[in-house]
Amino acid sequence: MSPDILPRGGGTGDPNLAHDASSPRGYNQALPGLMEVATMYCPRCGLGQPSDHRFCLSCGARLPTELLPHRGPKVSRWFRTIPVHPEDRPESMLRVSRYLDEFDIETEDGAVRVPAHHVRLSFWLADRAICALSIPDDEAEALSVFLAAAVADGHSREPLPTTPAG
């Protein structure tokens, strides 16, 4: 475990005691339910945290969740959009999911096998995906190189094809 996510000020060793920032000793508040699911500790105040939290329940500090091992078949990130056309909705979002492991899901229409090693881009309006597409990992890597080069230089390093390769 990284030192960034260990409790500060030395722990008591008692998993049922959580850090209380207002206490000079630090560990004086019993939180039996929280400690059963705590998988990391706040780097600022030392309070045990569930691994799905992004900010500390006590002090609000950002938690270093990127240091934890991934626990699922995919990782996802949401991106804000900007309206550039009159029909663009300001509440639209882009979700990018990288599928690391193959897995099966059950839907109303039956079972679906989701393959590993691809990236899915889905476009959301409110709480509903309105469009989605998947690209293989090598194309996702090429996309990331293109975006990084475009940001660094102000334009693409390589010419873009005018039509998709068939």
| Overall residue-averaged pLDDT value | 74
**How do the helices and strands follow one another from N- to C-terminus?**
EEHEEEEEEEEH
* Beta-strand residue percentage: 25-35%
- Low-pLDDT segments, ≥5 res: 1-37
**Tally of discrete structural domains:** 2
Helical amount: 10-25%
Q: Determine the number of helices (DSSP H or I, runs of at least 4 residues).
A: 2
**Structural class of the secondary structure composition?**
alpha+beta
Distance between the termini: 47 Å
Biggest pleated-sheet summary: 4 strands, antiparallel
Which descriptors apply to this entry?
single chain, 166 residues, 10 strands, globular, disordered N terminus, alpha+beta, 14% helix, 2 helices, two-stranded antiparallel ribbon, 2 domains
Description of the structure:
With 166 residues, the chain is an alpha+beta fold. The protein has 2 domains: 3-67, no CATH class; 74-153, no CATH class. Helix content is 14%, strand content 34%. The protein contains 2 helices and 10 strands. It has helices at 32-37, 137-153, and strands at residues 17-19, 27-30, 38-41, 48-50, 74-80, 92-99, 103-107, 110-114, 118-125, 128-136. The strands form 4 sheets. It has a 4-stranded antiparallel beta sheet. The protein is globular, with a radius of gyration of 22 Å. The model is unreliable at 1-37 (pLDDT under 50).
